[in-house]
Write a structure and sequence with these properties.
The chain is of the alpha+beta class. The chain has 2 domains: about 35 residues; about 70 residues. It has 3 helices and 6 strands; from the N terminus they run ββαααββββ. The chain has a 4-stranded antiparallel beta sheet, covered by helices on one side. The chain has a two-stranded antiparallel sheet with strand order 1-2. The longest helix is centred in the first third of the chain and has 25 residues. The chain starts with 11 loop residues before the first strand and ends with a strand. The relative contact order is 0.10.
Length: about 140
Amino acid sequence: MPGKQSTACSVRRGGIMLDEELCQAQTEFMKLPALLIWSAFLASSPIAPAAETQTPDPALYGPYPANYKEIVTDWLQTQLIDPSSARIEWKGEPKPADLGKSFTVNARNRFGTYTGKQEHGALIRNGEVVKGIGFGY
């Protein structure tokens, strides 16, 4: 119909009024690159297979130290604001190369109040903690 504008596809581009067929053609044309880009993104995304849990090789990592509680407690003395207030609960025996949360600590913070039980873990190498897990820094 002459003089009637379609609200769906009539747009003004650069001062020129595009008719509905041209506008739809441009819309379809713009969908193709978007579809190609999306397809390329999905194709390049790694699809991870289900994680397989493997037991660490004790020959590679060595045995967990028998005095791990003493090593971790000494290390916590250097990490906590008020180490004398620390209440440590151990969650079973650790395993070689295990970075899981193996103990909880409830200690006083800068304000003198207890923080509540916080889960932590520690990686020990050559008798000292080389990585702490669960600390905010």
